[in-house]
Amino acid sequence: MHTTPGAEVTSSTDLASALITVTMRTLESLHATTMQDWRIPRVYAGHEVGADVRADLIFTLGHLADAGVKEIANRPPDAAINHLLENVNGRATHTFFS
Prior knowledge:
3 helices
């Protein structure tokens, strides 16, 4: 289903597959190093991590689930979303529409 990064992209299906692959690899790398058990740090590289990062991660995981991804970092996307929703700070969360 998913292509290898760097593979030739000749259709919208190829592009979608490449984007899913890159997104999954990035999130799995973050999960393995910085966000173990989907815990988002308060500070990353010396900068405060805002509440919007949690909302953006939930948004991205939702798109991966909609794209048919069954598991990311050994967990179904919906389970990771449910875990992340437990700690959403609505008042502190800013979206693209704020």
